[in-house]
Amino acid sequence: MEFPDTPTTVSRRCFLGGCAATALATGTALSAGTAAAAESQPCGKLPPGTFLAKKADVPLNGGVVVYFDDETSVVVAQPKKGTYTAFDAKCTHLGCMCSEVDNNLIICWCHDSRFSSVDGKRKTGPAKKPLPQIKTKIKGDDIVVA
To answer: How many domains does the chain have?
Structure first.
Protein backbone atom coordinates (compact mmCIF):
# COMPACT_ATOMS: atom_id res chain seq x y z
CA MET A 1 0.00 0.00 0.00
CA GLU A 2 1.37 3.42 -0.93
CA PHE A 3 0.95 6.53 1.17
CA PRO A 4 1.16 10.14 0.03
CA ASP A 5 4.28 12.17 0.68
CA THR A 6 2.23 14.75 2.57
CA PRO A 7 0.34 13.96 5.75
CA THR A 8 -3.41 13.73 5.96
CA THR A 9 -5.45 15.02 8.85
CA VAL A 10 -7.75 12.21 9.95
CA SER A 11 -11.17 12.57 11.53
CA ARG A 12 -11.91 11.25 15.01
CA ARG A 13 -14.26 8.60 13.57
CA CYS A 14 -11.57 7.32 11.19
CA PHE A 15 -9.00 7.18 13.99
CA LEU A 16 -11.37 5.37 16.32
CA GLY A 17 -11.79 2.66 13.68
CA GLY A 18 -8.02 2.46 13.32
CA CYS A 19 -7.68 2.43 17.08
CA ALA A 20 -9.90 -0.63 17.32
CA ALA A 21 -7.77 -2.42 14.73
CA THR A 22 -4.59 -1.38 16.54
CA ALA A 23 -5.99 -2.62 19.86
CA LEU A 24 -6.83 -5.98 18.28
CA ALA A 25 -3.38 -6.27 16.70
CA THR A 26 -1.69 -5.17 19.93
CA GLY A 27 -3.70 -7.65 21.98
CA THR A 28 -2.67 -10.41 19.59
CA ALA A 29 0.99 -9.40 19.82
CA LEU A 30 0.88 -9.23 23.61
CA SER A 31 -0.84 -12.59 23.89
CA ALA A 32 1.95 -14.02 21.75
CA GLY A 33 4.40 -12.81 24.38
CA THR A 34 5.66 -9.74 22.55
CA ALA A 35 5.47 -6.58 24.64
CA ALA A 36 7.26 -4.46 22.03
CA ALA A 37 3.95 -3.00 20.83
CA ALA A 38 3.43 -1.44 24.24
CA GLU A 39 6.54 0.71 23.92
CA SER A 40 6.08 4.01 22.14
CA GLN A 41 9.04 5.26 20.18
CA PRO A 42 9.39 8.82 18.94
CA CYS A 43 8.62 9.39 15.28
CA GLY A 44 12.31 9.28 14.42
CA LYS A 45 11.38 8.44 10.85
CA LEU A 46 10.32 12.02 10.20
CA PRO A 47 13.28 13.99 8.88
CA PRO A 48 13.84 17.65 9.77
CA GLY A 49 11.68 19.94 7.68
CA THR A 50 8.79 17.44 7.45
CA PHE A 51 5.54 19.40 7.22
CA LEU A 52 3.19 18.70 10.14
CA ALA A 53 0.42 21.31 9.92
CA LYS A 54 -0.49 24.88 9.07
CA LYS A 55 -0.55 27.12 12.14
CA ALA A 56 -4.07 28.25 11.20
CA ASP A 57 -5.31 24.62 11.30
CA VAL A 58 -4.26 24.01 14.92
CA PRO A 59 -6.91 25.40 17.29
CA LEU A 60 -6.01 27.14 20.53
CA ASN A 61 -6.28 24.68 23.48
CA GLY A 62 -6.80 21.91 20.93
CA GLY A 63 -4.91 20.25 18.15
CA VAL A 64 -4.90 17.99 15.14
CA VAL A 65 -3.75 14.45 14.54
CA VAL A 66 -1.65 14.03 11.41
CA TYR A 67 -1.44 10.58 9.81
CA PHE A 68 1.63 9.60 7.79
CA ASP A 69 1.37 5.78 7.58
CA ASP A 70 0.29 2.75 9.64
CA GLU A 71 3.02 3.34 12.22
CA THR A 72 3.51 7.10 12.18
CA SER A 73 0.99 9.63 13.44
CA VAL A 74 1.68 12.93 15.14
CA VAL A 75 -0.42 15.10 17.44
CA VAL A 76 0.16 18.82 16.87
CA ALA A 77 -1.30 21.08 19.58
CA GLN A 78 -1.50 24.76 20.52
CA PRO A 79 -1.66 24.79 24.33
CA LYS A 80 -1.34 28.58 24.45
CA LYS A 81 -1.61 31.25 21.78
CA GLY A 82 1.32 31.04 19.40
CA THR A 83 2.94 28.03 21.11
CA TYR A 84 2.87 24.77 19.14
CA THR A 85 3.86 21.33 20.39
CA ALA A 86 4.03 17.94 18.71
CA PHE A 87 4.05 14.39 20.05
CA ASP A 88 4.11 10.86 18.74
CA ALA A 89 0.40 9.93 18.65
CA LYS A 90 1.05 6.32 19.68
CA CYS A 91 -0.23 5.86 23.23
CA THR A 92 2.41 4.58 25.63
CA HIS A 93 -0.07 2.17 27.19
CA LEU A 94 -0.73 -0.41 24.45
CA GLY A 95 0.09 1.45 21.25
CA CYS A 96 -3.35 2.70 20.17
CA MET A 97 -3.32 6.02 18.37
CA CYS A 98 -4.36 9.11 20.28
CA SER A 99 -7.14 10.65 18.26
CA GLU A 100 -8.23 13.92 19.81
CA VAL A 101 -7.00 17.04 21.59
CA ASP A 102 -9.51 18.77 23.84
CA ASN A 103 -8.94 21.42 26.48
CA ASN A 104 -5.15 20.88 26.30
CA LEU A 105 -5.47 17.10 26.78
CA ILE A 106 -4.35 14.57 24.17
CA ILE A 107 -6.80 11.68 24.38
CA CYS A 108 -6.41 8.00 23.58
CA TRP A 109 -9.93 6.59 23.54
CA CYS A 110 -8.84 2.93 23.60
CA HIS A 111 -8.41 2.93 27.37
CA ASP A 112 -8.99 6.65 28.11
CA SER A 113 -5.40 7.68 28.74
CA ARG A 114 -4.94 11.45 28.65
CA PHE A 115 -1.74 13.43 28.20
CA SER A 116 -0.82 17.11 28.56
CA SER A 117 -0.54 18.94 25.23
CA VAL A 118 2.10 21.15 26.87
CA ASP A 119 4.70 18.47 27.66
CA GLY A 120 3.14 15.08 26.80
CA LYS A 121 3.04 13.93 30.42
CA ARG A 122 0.36 11.44 31.44
CA LYS A 123 -2.54 13.05 33.28
CA THR A 124 -4.97 10.11 33.72
CA GLY A 125 -5.57 6.56 32.52
CA PRO A 126 -3.54 3.38 32.42
CA ALA A 127 -0.57 4.82 30.47
CA LYS A 128 2.42 5.38 32.75
CA LYS A 129 4.89 7.05 30.38
CA PRO A 130 4.57 10.42 28.64
CA LEU A 131 4.11 10.73 24.89
CA PRO A 132 7.46 11.22 23.14
CA GLN A 133 7.83 14.85 22.07
CA ILE A 134 8.79 15.83 18.55
CA LYS A 135 10.77 19.03 18.26
CA THR A 136 9.19 21.52 15.91
CA LYS A 137 9.88 24.90 14.39
CA ILE A 138 7.83 27.46 12.53
CA LYS A 139 8.61 27.99 8.86
CA GLY A 140 6.39 30.78 7.58
CA ASP A 141 2.83 29.60 8.27
CA ASP A 142 3.87 25.96 8.62
CA ILE A 143 4.78 23.81 11.62
CA VAL A 144 7.61 21.45 10.65
CA VAL A 145 9.90 18.94 12.34
CA ALA A 146 13.00 20.73 13.69
So the answer is: 1
- Tell me whether residue 41 is in a domain: yes
pLDDT in tens, 68-116: 988 899 999 999 999 999 999 999 999 999 999 999 999 999 999 999 9
Give me the DSSP letters along 1-64: ----SS-EE--HHHHHHHHHHHHHHHHHHHHTT--GGGS----TTS-TT-EEEEGGGS-BT-EE
Contacts of 85 (CB under 8 A, 6+ apart): 76, 77, 78, 79, 117, 118, 119, 120, 133, 136
Torsions phi, psi for 16 (to 5 deg): -65, -40
Query: Is residue 33 situated within a structural domain?
Result: yes
Segment 5-44, tens digit of pLDDT? 445 454 444 444 454 444 444 343 333 333 333 333 455 5
The CATH number covering residue 94 comes to: 2.102.10.10
Answer yes or no: are the C-beta atoms of 69 and 57 closer than 8 Å: no
